[in-house]
Write a structure and sequence with these properties.
The protein is mainly alpha-helical. The chain is about 65% helix and about 5% strand. A hairpin with a 2-residue loop joins β2 and β3. α6 crosses α7 and α12 packs across α13. The radius of gyration is 25 Å and the shape is elongated.
């Protein structure tokens, strides 16, 4: 009935009506009001959700097993989840305070810098900076790839020489998870504007998908985002969405001799 069991609306309904017969016996106005108070999608959404829940509860009464112990277990799980979530919220609050105390330092500036990149929030930025240790140790993007375990791994054993290239995954698995999430977030298409969050990354991904598997294309996007992060931290510049053509024009203006030699 819901995208996740742990949404506020879902937890509130399960806590109040853990069994199918509990929901069927509840006044319609009360359930609809409960949905509206947490879902915030309006009365039409709440009524439609109530009708779907009521129909599912009717089926559950026929085909399911209603045990009082199940109701106790459900409420226990909800209590444990909420306590766990409260601990996580407390830890995140302490992390905000810890980073706030670094105001005026290079670390604090770099955390703020990374948050300008689409798909990278406060927690992701802190994790990336913490996993790097000292960014000044990385003289090139390739060294950062290798440190995060995104460099190609060699699969050789004795006389066997593998011809399939995968990420080595020797570095920080936590940083790779952050970069993977950032890649997925950059590839999202906004529902309101019906446009990609990052058109440049999305176009790059589509072109990669033309000749490679999707999972390989996502890996290429992770590399591109890692390259962007390196450039932002190296130049101490906020993220700016520019096309590859515009990037080349700017580079040519800043390094005229280099571009002429390449031509």
């Amino acid at each position: 009935m819901f995208s996740k069991v742990t949404t506020q609306t879902s937890l509130k309904l399960l806590d109040a009506y853990p069994l199918a017969q509990d929901l069927l016996a509840a006044p319609k106005e009360l359930v609809v009001g409960m949905i509206r108070s947490t879902a915030r999608f309006g009365e039409k959404y709440a009524l439609a959700k109530y009708d779907a829940l009521y129909a599912a509860a009717e089926d559950a009464v026929v085909f399911g097993r209603a045990l009082h112990s199940n109701a106790l277990r459900i409420r226990l799980y909800i209590k444990l989840y909420r306590e766990y979530q409260a601990h996580l919220d407390s830890m995140l609050e302490e992390l905000h305070k810890a980073v706030g105390r670094l105001e005026g330092t290079l670390v604090r500036d770099r955390v703020s810098l990374l948050q300008t990149l689409p798909g990278v929030g406060f927690l992701s930025a802190v994790v990336l900076i913490a996993e790097m240790g000292s960014f000044d140790l990385f003289s090139s993007p390739k060294k950062l790839y290798a440190y995060f375990g995104m460099d190609p791994g060699v699969n050789d054993s004795g006389k066997f020489h593998g011809d399939r290239v995968h990420m080595s995954k020797r570095g920080s698995s936590l940083a790779r998870r952050i970069l993977h999430m950032a890649a997925i977030n950059n590839l999202k298409v906004g529902k309101a504007a019906n446009a990609p969050v990052n058109p440049v990354i999305y176009d790059y991904y589509i072109r990669k998908c033309a000749g490679k598997k999707k999972i390989v294309a996502v890996g290429a996007v992770m590399h591109k985002i890692c390259n962007t992060i390196f450039a932002m931290l190296r130049d101490n510049k906020l993220f700016e969405l520019i096309t590859p053509e515009e990037h080349c024009k700017r580079y040519a203006a800043e390094h005229p001799g280099t571009m002429n030699a390449a031509a």
